[in-house]
Design brief:
Layout: E1 2-6, H1 10-21, E2 25-30, E3 47-51, H2 52-58, E4 61-64, H3 71-77, E5 85-88, H4 104-110, E6 117-120, H5 126-130, E7 133-134, E8 137-138, E9 140-144, H6 148-161, E10 165-170, H7 175-191
Parallel strand pairs: 1-2, 1-4, 2-3, 4-5, 5-6, 9-10
Antiparallel strand pairs: 6-9, 7-8
This protein binds NADP nicotinamide-adenine-dinucleotide phosphate.
């Protein structure tokens, strides 16, 4: 797959690392190709960097992992997203970004041409995106959105990182719930002081 990653920090960097190893072609969409967080990713195979609009043009899938307060600016910088699948990994932290909707994904949906928008990869720490393996058990991932095609692709991309399964939480009306679920992880990891080496697994019988 050809994947543009906008936001090349903790999350974007972990995703680029995992997917490039699986042979995906990664285009880091950056504001300044000479100086950006994660510039060391360029030493890995299958990863290159270019201006944001160019990265989007070159790709089938666009992943956004910038700070939530930048959502509008980032969406405006994407250019034409017709026919692209957009995956939103962001969370509105802290919850005081008054220019946003109930979730960053709602804001993206309202301000771009693509209707194939999925929220995924936001409910766990970047450390788990880099390595979802806990002993013999691999963590699960979760996703939401109306786009069937978008969710099929997001699910495949979670498997490519090593997640055991990716559960479908529902449609676009579940974007905000996905952010709440992320806060559940953040609360346990940070405020309840369990640390970042924790993750979610769904049990069934
Ligand atoms: N950290 C986690 O464990 C985690 C887990 C799940 C979800 N999230 C969510 O994922 C998102 C990213 O978190 P992070 O920890 O990866 O952030 P981060 O390490 O601070 O990286 C932010 C990235 O966004 C880029 N950026 C900022 N403003 C931009 C703009 N206007 N246009 C284009 N790029 C811009 C920065 O580019 P420069 O290099 O040019 O500064 C940087 O590459 C956040 O919404 C966060 O809530 C984080």
């Amino acid at each position: 797959m050809k994947i543009a990653i906008i936001g090349t920090g903790n999350v974007g960097g972990a995703l680029a690392t995992g997917w490039s190893k699986k042979g995906h072609k990664i285009f880091l969409g950056v504001r300044n190709p000479e100086n950006f967080k994660g510039i060391e990713l360029l030493s890995l195979s299958n990863i290159s960097a270019c201006p944001i609009e160019e990265a989007v043009k070159l790709s089938d899938v666009v992943v956004i992992s910038t700070p939530a307060k930048e959502t509008i600016n980032v969406v405006k910088s994407l250019g034409d997203t017709t026919g692209k699948i957009i995956i939103d990994t962001m969370n509105t932290v802290p919850k005081d970004t008054s220019n946003l909707d109930s979730s960053t994904t709602e804001t993206i949906l309202k301000n771009t041409q693509s209707k194939d928008i999925v929220k995924c990869f936001n409910t766990t720490g970047a450390n788990n995106l880099l390595d979802p393996k806990y002993g013999d058990t691999n963590l699960d991932m979760f996703m939401a959105g109306d786009s069937k095609t978008g969710k099929e692709i997001a699910k495949q991309l979670t498997f490519d990182l090593g997640f055991a399964n990716c559960y479908d939480v529902g449609g676009n009306d579940k974007f905000a719930l996905m952010e709440e679920f992320a806060f559940f992880w953040i609360n346990l990891a940070m405020f309840q002081k369990l640390g970042r080496e924790i993750g979610f697994k769904l049990l069934k019988r």
